[in-house]
Amino acid sequence: MRLLILGGGWFLGRALIEQALERDHNVVTFTRGKSGSVVPEAAPHRGDRANDRDMADLAAMGPWDVVIDTSGMTPGLVERSARVLASEVDRYVYVSTVNVYQGWPTQPLDDSSPIRSYLPYGPPGESSADQYGREKVGCEQAVTSMFGDRATILRPGVIIGPHEYVGRIPWWLRRIAGGGRVLAPGFPDWPIQPIDVRDVAAFTLDVVEQQLAGSFNLTAPIGSATFGGLLDACRQATGGPAELEWVDHDFLISQGVREWTELPLWRPYPGTWKVDSPRARAAGLTCRPLTDTVIDTWEWLSKAGPQPVHERAAELGISPEREAAVLAAWDSRRTR
Ligand SMILES: NC(=O)c1ccc[n+]([C@@H]2O[C@H](COP(=O)([O-])OP(=O)(O)OC[C@H]3O[C@@H](n4cnc5c(N)ncnc54)[C@H](OP(=O)(O)O)[C@@H]3O)[C@@H](O)[C@H]2O)c1
Prior knowledge:
The protein is of the alpha/beta class. The chain folds into 2 domains: 155 residues, NAD(P)-binding Rossmann-like Domain (Rossmann fold, 3-Layer(aba) Sandwich); 123 residues, UDP-galactose 4-epimerase, domain 1 (Alpha-Beta Complex). Helix content is 38%, strand content 18%. The protein is built from 11 helices and 13 strands. The strands form 4 sheets. A 7-stranded parallel sheet has the order 3-2-1-4-5-6-11, with helices on both faces. Strands 7-10 form a two-stranded parallel sheet. Strands 8-13 form a two-stranded parallel ribbon. Helix 1 packs across helix 6, helix 3 runs parallel beside helix 4 and helix 7 packs parallel to helix 10. The longest helix is centred in the middle third of the chain and has 20 residues. It is globular. NADP nicotinamide-adenine-dinucleotide phosphate binds next to helix 1 and strand 2.
């Protein structure tokens, strides 16, 4: 098949290119060339989706069987891409997120849970996660209104694996490799369900090849992994002599520890990791064990040269001083 990837340079795009080429598809990628990483076997086309001329030039390179949009973050630009490409592609696969659901990140969810409303502006003080979810709803609507049953919407939960730019698993790997007493959030048996980027890519290409329409959550099975398993896998991968100190949710909250970012992947709500993906599972989604992902991520990190710094990486991780202070407060609480 002839595939156009709107994106292709960072994380999911890279995995898609590699697997699409393995499956003998013909791949064109479209990026501005800012992130600097290109899989050379795919045909890279340079341009900015915010630039009408660049989009018109891209459309003139059609037709394609499918466009896979990994880089669409704002409804206006996604609507523009969908409109320009509508007569040049048979199917538009849009990579959205579970943040579109009203109940994220506190409630259990499945494919039929209610999604947020799209409004061009959020309420004052809207969090970046809410803004992201609201705008992704607008992007989904732009694609479905233009492509109808030729649209496919993918809603991954947290994606991890080699080349992960947000840096969640890399942060834990480096922290565990650093050794010493590690502030471990909650409980070892707290369930988590991140999904490997290569499993997302494989399912995306299955959808493309089978021309599946509709929307699909993409998460590892509920309860398939635990936070303790994640940190043990980090110890196994790095050989780091870290000592895990599990500190309960309420205490972390009382210390003002920022959920999700200061201790990556930690949220105190049971619903965060209860996102079910029955449609994708029925369509063949398979997920590798978390330990394999962690080991492969460490292998990549150990060999990787300097990586592009993503804006979202800046907010990640607790400082050594603050980690020590929270642990000291935890110790004094127990000895009181
Ligand atoms: N990471 C997660 O945990 C997670 C979870 C759920 C959903 N998602 C979604 O999954 C998708 C993942 O994307 P990814 O970043 O891994 O994809 P990617 O295709 O690997 O990287 C995005 C590419 O888009 C290009 N790009 C950005 N803005 C552009 C523009 N205006 N015009 C042309 N190209 C542009 C960037 O290159 P240049 O800078 O060179 O242009 C980059 O190569 C996103 O839609 C995200 O919302 C992610």
